[in-house]
Specification:
426 residues, alpha/beta, Gyrase A, domain 2, Four Helix Bundle (Hemerythrin (Met), subunit A), Rossmann fold, 3 domains, 6-stranded mixed sheet, binds guanosine-5'-triphosphate, binds magnesium ion
Length: 426
């Protein structure tokens, strides 16, 4: 039996506060402090009544009643909408605990939903991502994962792996008959390579997933006085960084975010790069170079007559060159800004609805291990390794992929670890 748990599901300070309760005897416990007997209430109804402590009315509330198995957790559940007073909410929780409820751990409602088969683990994790999403891109990724797109992709991979296993077993069966040729391994190899390609595509999307989650870092780099800080201010629409005609005004990196068409960009204004004997300015320039290293996009700013700074960059970085203080681009007056925004957007490959983007480090780790494991399968097929050894690696690939959806996770400790990052009440 699952003991009843309760938690506040809304942040403090709102007009309303919602307390959630779930468990086998949840409705019975709630009925002890509510004016109606909720054990008799029809599922999916909203009940109006009072929460009472002895004869004292604590609040007038609306209680949504859900019954197992058709609820978020799969258990009997209720959501109590109270007035948002901290006193009221604490009092209601206290009353629930006094009548036999336990305060929920972070993510415990969602953990129960997972354990009761309402969703798989990657969907449960998407719930946390959805709550944390703060722009269209992260929202879209979390929503698609919650709705099971990643899960069905993994199910497809699983089917292909099972098919491969069947073909291999066929080979094993026939190998007992000396008069029969071994099954053709080319087909097996092609299938394994196809699976590996998809696994790699998924794991490669992680970098983009991270960028979307944390914001795309854009370093503004250039010689002193070319207008880097002015550009930052114009982009952000506020006087974020100090601007002056003195060379070396900016000494430390200054960072702020801007959402462009649903994607968050993280702009990093830096100290102008030049040779200097000033110790503090030198430290600042080191930071500029470090920011350029970490950036996904480097905005190289210059002005007529000044060369672009010669800094190292990588293939996976996008360079956007801007000649400032000209007729076509003037950071100070925002001229040419639309063009710059368009180039920033172009620098990141667009996500279409059909793209699956991996944002979770646990999933990424599993995909990397699955890749290693399927690589061993490919190697085994290439080197005519015996079928049962190849089958062993295949089974391992299946197990690793199943970790993502939670099928092969049996340790409570691992689960607690995953759900401990959730908010209480979710
Ligand atoms: N005419 C004109 N002046 C500009 C433009 N952008 C910046 N300036 C001026 O150029 C000077 C330097 O601007 P900043 O934005 O402080 O330059 P910076 O690149 O951040 O300089 P450091 O922080 O010293 O590296 C200021 O006087 C700005 O007003 C522009 O587009 N046109
Ligand atoms: Mg500056």
């Amino acid at each position: 039996m699952n003991e009843a748990i309760c938690a506040l599901a809304t942040p403090p300070g709102g007009a309303l506060g919602i307390i959630r309760i779930s468990g086998e005897n949840a409705l019975e416990i709630l009925s002890h402090i509510f004016t109606k007997d909720l054990t008799l209430a029809r599922p999916n109804t909203i009940q109006y009544g009072h929460i009472k402590s002895h004869e004292e009315v604590i609040d007038e509330c609306m209680v949504s009643v859900f019954r197992s198995p058709r609820s978020y957790t799969g258990e009997d559940c209720a959501e109590i909408s109270c007035h948002g007073s901290r006193y009221i909410l604490n009092k209601v929780l206290e009353l629930l605990v006094r009548h036999g409820c336990r305060m929920a751990q972070p993510g415990e409602f969602t953990q129960r939903a997972f354990l009761n088969g309402k969703m798989d683990l990657s969907q449960a994790e998407a719930v946390a991502d959805l709550i944390a999403s703060n722009n269209r891109a992260t929202h879209q990724v979390a929503m698609s994962q919650l709705r099971g797109r990643f899960s069905s992709e993994l199910a497809q991979l699983r089917d292909q792996l099972l098919h491969l296993t069947t073909l291999l077993e066929l080979e094993l069966d026939f190998s007992d008959h000396e008069d029969l040729e071994f099954a053709d391994r080319t087909e097996l190899l092609q299938l394994a390579q196809l699976i590996d390609k998809r696994i790699r595509q998924l794991s490669e999307s992680f970098q983009r997933g991270q960028a979307l989650k944390n914001g795309i870092p854009v370093a503004i780099i250039g010689a002193p006085n070319v207008g880097k800080s002015t550009l930052l201010n114009v982009l952000l629409g506020e006087e974020r960084a100090i601007v002056s005609d003195i060379q070396g005004t900016t000494r430390d990196t200054i960072e702020d975010t801007l959402e462009i068409n649903g994607v968050t960009f993280r702009f990093i204004d830096t100290a102008g790069i030049r040779h200097t004997s000033d110790r503090i300015e030198t430290l600042g320039i080191d930071r500029s170079l470090a920011a350029a290293q970490r950036a996904r996009i480097i905005l190289m700013v210059t002005e007529p007559g000044v060369p672009y700074p010669d800094i190292p960059f990588r293939d996976d970085q996008t360079l956007i060159r801007i000649e400032n203080k000209t007729k076509t681009f003037q950071a100070k007056y925002g001229i040419g800004l639309d063009d710059l925004l368009a180039r920033l957007e172009d620098a990141i490959p667009r996500t279409s609805d059909s793209d699956i983007i991996v944002t979770n480090a646990r999933h990424y780790d599993a995909l990397l291990r699955a890749h290693e494991s399927i690589q061993r399968v490919i190697e085994g097929l290439n080197t005519s390794l015996s079928g049962d050894l190849v089958a062993e690696d295949l089974r391992q690939t299946l197990d690793i992929l199943a970790e993502i959806t939670g099928g092969t996770i049996t340790s409570q400790e691992t689960l607690n670890n995953i759900f401990s990052h959730f908010c209480v009440g979710k």
